[in-house]
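Running this now, will post back.
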Amino acid sequence: MKEERTLNRLKKPALCVGALGLAIGLWSFQDDLFQISKNLDVFASVYKEVNLNYVDDINSAKLVKTGVDAMLDGLDPYTEFVPESEVEDYKLHYVSTQYGGIGAGIFLRDNKVFISDIFEGFAAQKADIRQGDQLLKINDIDLAGKTNDQISTLLKGSKGAAVKLLLKRGEEAPVVKNIVRDEIKQPNVVYYGMVDGNMGYIKLNKFLENSADEVTTALVALKKNNPNGIILDLRSNGGGILQEAVKIVNLFVAKDVLVVSQKGKIRGKNFSYNTVATPMEPNLPLVVVVNGRSASASEITAGALQDLDRAIVIGQRSYGKGLVQQTFNLPYNSLVKITVAKYYIPSGRCVQELDYAHRKDDGSVIKVADSSIHEFKTRNGRSVYDGSGIYPDIPVKQERFANITSTLISKLYIFDYATLYRTAHPQPIDPKTFRLTDADYADFTKYLQGKNYTYTPVSEKILKNLKTEATKEKQFTQIQAEYDALKAKMASNKQSDLQMHKDEIKQVLENEISSRYAYEKGRYEANFKYDKELAEAVKTMQSKTQLASILKGEGSFKVIGKPVLAMAGKKEKEDND
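Update: finished.
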């Protein structure tokens, strides 16, 4: 009894503390509600006074959206408000690739509208509309002064509806094209086929609706060729729907295996996603190709297959987005997309690189600290790390275009020459074997005569700054001879750039010209012969010994992207960006 009374006496203070904690919690909750109510009242009052008293008319919808955007700006770039006017574009970008239109892309140049791309099999191609054609009017509406969005809206419409276009090709007289809009469904899988080594190749551009079904269709078709391996290309794939990534992993991984889990502040947002079906191809050698723009669902796919030791990852370190978003409906048909969780792939690692919760004093985002990077293990015991995207098993350095090549692309001289080439060479070509001759390249350099394709390389900017600083310090006269010699050398190099970078420029020209005959498919096939990551994938799968060594984690393959390598990878990615 004495022990019981003592126990009861000990319990009473605990009950008091518990009651006090409850009271504090309730007070804190009520205070939060008061602060929220107070600040919303202040926001509404500020808007009311500005709307009533501001000297000029204001766009109330724009004003409110600016306020909401500013509120969300301190979180992460993926948490965003979508007003009613932008909902359809949002769904097209993040959910579905289906809409009514003619099957063509456009761009503006010098206040003129041109066709940039033609989607094979749709109305524009059937009507012989080509890349480079100038679009003058849509349904008799002059396009002068119209924005890109306004023109896209005019082109889009319900399936089966007619649209009248006035187009001009080169120096030819304008012609009218009466077209019936198609239901445009841009594929997620933009290309699949057989490449060197009898390898099956699948290029997946998005993880939107039906992407897993499209990969399945491609895999079924490729298997008819008895491939020696499969290459899944996720380069520059920014992601999309998480569940589609799980389904794609399931094509290669056994049933009831964890692919990814998501964990958030709210327990109801925590989910684990396992494979649910018998895999279509559990044993065939598999390579996943990634680069610095492979993000989100791409990283789930590549990372899960790496963690499960099912695939070799080749390329450059991926983007590092380990955040999950969910869309919530708001009044008046608007939406808000909110980051609700982080995702974790089978080894337990999260690939998120930027730490949005701990910014610098100036508001800039910092990377996950080196001290916070942890080691995890793949199924076979290989070491992998969190906080820095998916590091490839076999890194391939990403080559950067020379300044001259980038300038020719940005000034659209490559694009325009490809259009002229198509007109002068009407016979079909095979993109896989097509090569520009030296005579063709000489014709291209002749085409450039009189055109402005000058550029200022970084070294030239540094040299100019050197002169400025040396002049300030009254030392320029002492180095002027060396300065003038170096400047002359740089000018000479620029003049010879067309020949110095001939092979690279020819490659870009071949890709663009091939698209004039075989559209996007032509670009991929023309580039196969130059694709270093693709060549490395084929080479790796052709060596069963190396393939086994990598997946077993033998020798140098025991560790993938250990911190020192991860830091080097970050530097490489920054350079590439």
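The chain has three domains: 98-185, 189-398, 403-535. More later if anyone needs it.
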